[in-house]
Structures are given as C-alpha cells and as structure tokens.
# Entry
Amino acid sequence: MTTTHIRTCPLCEAMCGLEITVDGDDQVTLIRADRDDVWSKGYLCPKGTTLGHLHHDPDRIREPMVRDGDEWRTVTWDEAFARCDELIAGVIERHGREAMTAYIGNPTVHNLSLSRYIGLFVAPAGFPMIYSAGTVDQWPKNVACMLMYGGMWTIPAPDIQRTHYWLVMGGNPQASQGSLLACPDVLGEIDNIRARGGKTVVIDPRRTGTADRADEWIPIVPGTDAAFLLAVVNVLFADGLVDLGDVHDFVNGVAEVEAAAREFAPEVVAATCGIDAPTIRRIAHEIAAAPSAAVYGRIGLCNQEFGTLASWLIDVVNVLTGNFDRPGGMMFGNPIAWSVSHLDDPQWADGVSFGRWRSRVRGTPEVLGQVPVSCLAEEIDTPDDAPGLFESPTKQIKALITIAGNPVISAPDAGRLDAALPMLECMISVDNWLNETTRHAHVILPGLSALEAPHYDDLILAWAARTFGNYSPPVFDVPDGRPREWQTLIVLGAMCMGMRWPDIDVRMFDDGFFAVACEAQGVDPAVAMAHYEDGGPERLLDLQIRTGPFGDRYGEVPDGLTLQHFRDAPHGIDLGPMVPMARHWVKTPSGRIELAPEYILADLPRLRARLDRPRDALVLVSRRHVRSNNSWMHNVKVLVKGKDRCTLLVHPDDAARLLLVDGGVARVTSEAGSVEVPVEVSDEMMLGVVSLPHGWGHDKPGTRLSVAREHAGVNSNLLSPGRLTDVISNNQVVNGFPVEVVPVGS
Ligand SMILES: Nc1nc2c(c(=O)[nH]1)N[C@H]1C(S)=C(S)[C@@H](COP(=O)(O)OP(=O)(O)OC[C@H]3O[C@@H](n4cnc5c(=O)[nH]c(N)nc54)[C@H](O)[C@@H]3O)O[C@H]1N2
Ligand SMILES: Nc1nc2c(c(=O)[nH]1)N[C@H]1C(S)=C(S)[C@@H](COP(=O)(O)OP(=O)(O)OC[C@H]3O[C@@H](n4cnc5c(=O)[nH]c(N)nc54)[C@H](O)[C@@H]3O)O[C@H]1N2
Ligand code: SF4
Ligand SMILES: [Mo]
# Structure
C-alpha cells in the first residue's frame, strides 16, 4: 500500500514543498516537487529528493551511544541520560560551570524542535559563554541590524519578486538557494527581473552560476566590498542622488554617513577593489535610477575582513536610494508565526553594549554574547595557569555540549580543535551522525530524521519574499519513549543547571517556557494552556500563530489563524507579498533607523589602512555546491556521485604562472596549515583568487560515514587562520586570506 505525503523540505531557506511517496514497508520510494505548494509551486533542488536517503541511511544514529575508549556502545535512553548526568555533575563539582560551554550548529535553525527550544537549553545551562556557527556566518549582519534597527534578527531582505534592479554581492543562490533571502527558484526570479525590463548584477570574485544567469558580472578583490560600497555612497551624495523616499522622516545619521564616505571617492578605492572608477559610478547611478532596486550581500560579505562595514553599507545604500521598506526594495518580512528569536532577550534589557567580558586566552571582547568560534580550541587546550591569560568569566573548558554542529569541519583552525576535543572530561553531542566532531563525544544523543519530525520554519520566514506558512506533520511515527530533541535539550539544560537525572521534570520546564511566551504576547497562560493536552513545539507553534499578526488570539479574533488551519492546508497558506514593515520592526532607543552607528563608524580607519596595503598575490575564497549542505550531506550517495567537487578552482593565468595543471594536485598552504587538493583550472575565477569549498575532509578515523569516507575531500578550514576576524563583529574571515599554491608531483 503506497501513501503520499505533502511536506516542506527543511534543508535550506528555499522551503520547497515536496510530495513524498512511501510504500507499504515504510520505504520512501519517490520524492518530487509539490506543484501545488503555494510558495514553491513545483520548484526543488537535488537535495530535497534525498530526505528518504537521509532517513534510511544505515549510518544515521537512531539510538543513543556511549563511548568507552575507542569503543561505542548503543545504550537505552535511560542509560545515556544517566551517563550524561554523571559526566556533567562531575565537571560541575570539580570545575564549576565556568568550565562548561556549548557549540550550536546550523541545522538548529532548520529544525522545529531545536529552533524553538534551544533557548530552553542555553538559559538554564547558564554557561558564561557559548559558541555557534554564527561567527563563521552572519554575525556581522547581526551586529549591523542590532545597531541600525534594534534587533539582531531584524534583517531586511531584497524583494526580488518585484524589484527592477538586483545587486548581488557575495552570495551565490545558484548553489545556496538563497540565504537571509528566502525565495524559491532565485535564478528564475533573475529571469523575471529581466522580463520586467530590469537587471541583475553580481559582484563576486568568481563568475558563479548566479553570475552566469545575471546580466552582468563584476569581479572584486575579496574583502574590499566595504570600500566599493563607500564609493557608491560617495557618488550618491556627490551626484545628488540621495532620496530617502518613504523612510525620509525615520532615519538618523544621514549627515554622518555622508561625511564618512567623503574620502572614499571611486578613484580612491578602484585599485584596491579591482573595479574601475567609471564602473563604480555607473553602478551607483543605476541603483538610483531604477524604478526599484535592492542591494543584497551575503556570506562573501560577512566571512571577510570588513564584514560588518560591508553588511552595514548594503543597507545604507538601500536607505539612501529610497529603496528601503518599499516594494521592490529591501524589506522586512511579516511572518504569520512570530519567531522565538524575536522575543526580548534579557541580556539587552539595559540596552546593547559589546565587550562586556573577554575570552580568557585571546582576550577577545564579546560581541552579541559570543567570541569567534576559533577561540573554542584554545579555551580547551590552554590550562588556567598558563601565562598571559585575560580576566574572563570562564575557566579552561572541560565540558562541551554540541548541538547539531560539526565544528571540526566548519570552524577555522580546524586542526587545533580536532586535537583539543580529546582533552575534554565531558563531551555530549546531540547529533544524528558519528562524524568528525561527534567521534570525540562521550555520549551521542540522536534526534529524529526530518521525516520523523514535524516541521514549520521559524526565523527564515522573517526574511521571506512572501507572507506564508506551511506545516508538515511527521511522515513516520517514532516509538514511544524515544525523546524528541526538544526534550533532550531540556534535560541537558537542567543537568547543566545542577539538577540530577532522573529528577528532571521536562513538562515543568516546558510549561514554564510556554507561560513566559504567552505573557510576552499579552496572553493569559491559563487561558492558552486550557487549549492543550500536550506540550512541546507544536503547542508553542500554535501560540506563535495565534498571537501573530493574523492569529485568532484564542478566540478574540473570529477569523484568525491557528495551527489547525495549516493542518487543513497541506500545500500551505499564502497571504501575499512583502508589505512595508519598518515602523513595526525598528526598535532602536530613538525609535528611528540608525544609519550611522558609532560603533561601526569607528572601524573605518581600519578600512582606510587597507587601501594602502598592497594586494596579496593569491587569496582563497570559499564556495558552495547545490549538491552539498555544509559538512553533513556527503553521506548521500546520489549527491556525491560523479565528478569530484572538492577541487581548487584556479584562473588559467594563475595556473600557468604556478605550473598547475587541470586535474593535477596542488598543495595549498596558509599561515594556519596545508592541504593537498585536485586542481580545476577555470576562467570563472578572478585572477589572483582561488576557491575551495568548505564542508569536506571526511577521512578521519573513527567516524561512521561510509559513503562520505569514499568522497573525503579536504577540510578547507585547516587553512583558515583562527585569529583572522572581522574584529568588530568577532566573525571569522574564511574568505580573502593569503595562500601559497604549488604543484605536487607531476
Ligand atoms: N571555510 C568556510 N567555513 C565555513 C563556511 C564557509 O563558507 N567557508 N560557512 C560557515 C557557515 S555559513 C555555517 S552555517 C557553518 C556550519 O557549521 P556547522 O553547523 O558546525 O556544520 P554543519 O556541517 O552544518 O553540521 C551540522 C551537524 O548537524 C548534524 N545534524 C544534521 N541534521 C540534524 C538534526 O536534525 N538534528 C541534529 N541534532 N543534528 C543534525 C550533522 O550530523 C552535523 O554534525 O559552517 C561555516 N564554515
Ligand atoms: N547547496 C547548499 N546550500 C546551502 C549551503 C550549502 O552548504 N550548500 N549552506 C547554507 C548556509 S549555512 C548558508 S550561510 C548559505 C550561504 O549562502 P551564500 O551566501 O549564497 O553562499 P555561497 O554559495 O557560499 O556564496 C558566497 C559567494 O561569495 C563569494 N565571495 C567570497 N568572498 C567574497 C568577497 O570578499 N566579496 C564578494 N563580493 N564575494 C565574495 C564567493 O565566491 C561565493 O560565490 O547557504 C545555505 N545554503
Ligand atoms: S532548494 Fe533544495 S534543499 Fe532547499 S528547500 Fe528546496 S529542495 Fe530543499
Ligand atoms: Mo550558514
């Protein structure tokens, strides 16, 4: 007996609707696009068709595992939690919570349970500091948005379904499917822009698949986007092109921005950026002249030396050209269900300030509660009596809890972390695979597969091109007694708080959290609670919908939405395109958009000094591929088969100069390390820039990734220098650092 299930793919920000066919033996036999999905309308990518492969992967962990020496044992959940309790209580007793931390990885955002409940682990655990993939990702954007709009997740997105001019900087949606920009079939939208008489321009050191689909590609020297954008701002003021449009009465700091850009005329930055002055002027004029325009920057603008300046300037250009908060420009979303990430964070109750404490070894001041993820290794391997340590709320780390993260692959200076993890007295991983990171754990607590878990996206909907929502119930049942990830998070949080297994009352924590969420939305918890028998993320989701902008507020709004409406609408509910929302979202102390935050302006001298620095002979940048997902989908045979994708892309002239041949092997060396990797000669690279994907390096012993091991590739983060950061955001620089490349053998 075959059944068909309509679900949403949780793997990336495109949120594609899927039609999943399952046979009588509970085997997924086919996954294809759901043509009736209100959002994706039949779009999908190759990864979405592999949710069955992930679910059936024999290497996927389904029961908790405990490690004794090199031996892994499958244990009951009771035994696993008892072991966690023993390990955590031991570290608390011997070293205190100052010696404990957590690392939170990317899939947390894409998982209903983890996204809603991560706070219910982090808050009770009360670690002095935690780490996340955020500092190799969007931290600069978080800093800019916190200062400009008053919320680190108040992130505007380009309204590409209506714009007439799209400038894409450091993003490659052809591979990534869009990021901090949720829209299915982004490349199709590039065609639509052209059909409207508009234009898409891509600024990237690589002529990407997105650039191929666009109207123009402008190569740029990595790390110089902020200089380019300041020159654009300079032209906007110099040529009288500034017009704030709808937000004219709502912006502070225009004069300060004008002054800041004064010394960055196009001629001043041209050589540094590798873009001639007339082109910079032309782009500024094109943005200003377009009926609507959206300037967009993504990871290439964050994971670089001037990440915050570049991320800030993206929004500055949109504001100055009247393209902020209007259709076809840069807009905030209006999600049907509010996100827990938008709840007021108690740490900012007295206003935002950075540098409230420092890391112990490097002395790095915190930014938005985090220091660079590369600090984790040194915080583990440096004893408390080492010389030259800084006053810090933490001690040498003895316990680490990883949640859906693989920092041994994804964090810079990866080799040092890999060597440090065995020094831990307690390492617990909430993860579904035994990989490069989790092989060091003492206990692995698996979650569910995407097809066993319910789904409804969270934060991503805040920057979606349309106001829509789609709920997916689980495709497969799981045995009773198997904890969901949200329950595991609560148990671990409570243990770190000092409670002992099995005294932990998960329901009590969940109800308490629910009550706080109700109160934050002005709803009486008792009234809301009366609607439910069970707790958990679906109860919270119902609250998020009911108290969101279209919700029924538990009966107060007669036709308002509830989760049940989504259960009844498997293809989703679409409430239309983006609408101006800035006056709702902006929550700065002044109540206005802060265009010129002092904290960011203070970084300009660093950029000015960069203009005098000679260009490095060869620098490395990262890239993604549509068939990969960071480090964790290389165990899916249909995705990794075919040609090797972990290659070093080299421009033909660089190849000739360096005596590299296509298909040969090169040794790439940076100040941090060295790897050997196959060379792919391609004129899609800018001269002087080579590109290597991240997420590979699956040759470590002791993992259980039978397919990935056969397609190991190399770990590009062995090359990324840990101490290289965008200093004002603490974000790692994995793009644009110098490397040497030499041929190996012949
Ligand atoms: N050089 C370089 N480095 C980079 C980047 C780059 O562009 N260049 N990009 C950075 C970016 S943007 C990011 S987001 C990070 C990603 O960094 P990480 O989040 O650390 O890495 P992932 O590869 O996403 O690892 C995901 C982990 O979650 C597990 N997992 C998958 N699904 C689930 C689930 O449903 N539940 C649980 N509990 N576990 C699950 C996987 O087994 C894996 O261990 O990498 C960063 N590193
Ligand atoms: N298939 C797939 N999809 C993914 C992921 C994945 O691993 N695989 N990862 C997901 C995650 S976690 C994220 S954060 C997003 C990221 O989504 P995107 O930001 O679209 O990521 P990339 O595809 O890596 O594109 C980054 C581009 O920046 C360019 N670049 C590098 N340095 C610079 C620079 O200094 N200036 C400029 N202008 N450009 C530069 C690179 O050449 C590259 O083309 O993708 C998400 N989607
Ligand atoms: S683009 Fe691919 S990975 Fe992303 S949601 Fe759609 S099917 Fe899933
Ligand atoms: Mo990311």
Remarks:
- The pocket of iron/sulfur cluster (ligand 3) is lined by residues 9, 11-12, 14-16, 44-45, 47-48, 177 (CB under 6 Å).
- The longest strand covers residues 674-681.
- The chain has a mean pLDDT of 97.
